[in-house]
Amino acid sequence: MIRRIYGKSWFSTAILAGLLLVVSFVSLFVGVVDIDINTLLTDRNAREFEIFLLSRIPRLLAILCTGTGMSVAGLIMQQLCMNKFVSPTTGATISSAQFGILLSLIFMPNASMWGRTLFSFTMSICGTWIFVWFIQKIQFKDAVLVPLVGIMFGNVIGGVTNFLAYKFEVTQQLSSFLVGSFALVIKGNYELVYLAAPLVVLAFIYANHFNIVGMGKDFAGNLGVNYKLVLFLGLTIAAMITASVVTVVGAISYIGLLVPNIVAMFRGDKIRGTLVDTALFGALFVLVADMIARTVIMPYELPIELIIGIVGSILFIGLLLYKLKNGRKAIRLGRKERNCHG
Questions:
Q1: How would DSSP label each residue in 273-289?
Q2: Which residue among 34, 89, 238, 249 is least packed, with the fewest CB closer than 10 Å?
Q3: Residue ranges of the domains in the chain?
Q4: What is the C-alpha separation between 126 and 134, in angstroms, rounded?
Q5: Cα separation of 167 and 312, whole Å?
Q6: DSSP H helical segments within the chain, as ranges?
Q7: Helices 196-205 and 271-295, interaxial angle, to 10°?
Q8: How far is CA 1 from its chain centroid?
Q9: How far apart are CA 312 and CA 306, in angstroms?
């Protein structure tokens, strides 16, 4: 019954969009400082109006861009690598972005956020490409091993990052980029995350090309699609989205892994048919997690990475058991076992 309902793309999209609008409105009034709607409408000089304008709205926009961007980044990586367990977390993209930020702290300590982002962009793209190149060279018999290799590669990068951070005494500066949190998002220091919006639009434009490339190099060549160019474009989009998010709010795991898988259970694996729902559900998922982080120990706030880490771990185990129970076909997007199509 559920599958039949979600088979109508407009129905699922409308439900997710409606829920997102309602939850977004409610989130604007969740926080330590109580904000009254009447005060916002009648007194623009009030302290509550200033908090609403400088903190609540920027925070909401940053959350929406983060959830949308990371979910779409995960969907792109899964489609191009033909593996449902590949994501910015398991593909070493987040770890590489953090390493880039570390390099900026060491070599350009006075760099602006845009300068740090340039380092983060470069290293996240390089790290993602090294991961893809490596799994192209080695054909695994089990698709679950591919993200495990990515996790190990990410841990190696993380180990090097921590070593250099201690060596150059920038551990405290780097710590804010290691754990995701929206607590410090205010007007003037979050706008960089807006980069996720045009990148998501670009992903939608090239969605059909990503589908074709996901079918393999020979298949893409027969249809006249430049396999290497589209693969580079897709992975670059995913890496840039991840880098912009890490630079602004820090590392937030599991979003790019879980959200595309949950949406695919109802909508299938075709990226154009699931991209909008994936973006909406990702934004809703992060927004709800942020509201929990703000209220669970109020007036204090937990890092959103902690909430998503706990919930994500439980959902990931359940997802893994579900896919293993339904056979190897449920783990992969295609019929044949291919890992990033060497």
A1: HHHHHHHHHHHHHHHHH
A2: 34
A3: 2-330
A4: 12
A5: 33
A6: 2-6, 9-27, 37-42, 47-51, 57-81, 93-107, 113-137, 145-167, 171-175, 196-205, 207-213, 217-222, 227-249, 255-267, 271-295, 304-325
A7: 160
A8: 30
A9: 10
Task: Specify the length of the chain in residues.
Answer: 342
Kindly report, residue by residue over 253-267, the tens digit of the pLDDT: 889 888 998 888 887
118: Cα within 13 Å, side-chain hemisphere: 7
- Measured distance CA(31)–CA(54) in Å, rounded: 14
Share of the chain above pLDDT 90, in %: 17
Residue 47 tokens, joined = 């302290």
Rounded distance between C-alpha atoms, residue 314 and residue 317, angstroms: 5
Q: What is the largest CA-CA distance in the chain?
A: 65
First to last CA, the chain: 39
d(CA 241, CA 199): 7
Q: Which two tokens stand for residue 197?
A: 């919006």
* Tens of pLDDT, residues 200-258: 899 888 888 888 887 877 787 788 888 888 888 998 999 999 888 888 888 888 898 88
Reading the block at residue 149, the tokens are 């290799």
How far is residue 259's CA from residue 266's CA, in Å, rounded to a whole number?
12
Is the whole model's pTM more than 0.70, yes or no?
Answer: yes
Does the structural domain 2-330 have CATH classification 1.10.3470.10? yes
Measured between alpha carbons, how far is 84 from 77 in angstroms, rounded to an integer?
A: 9
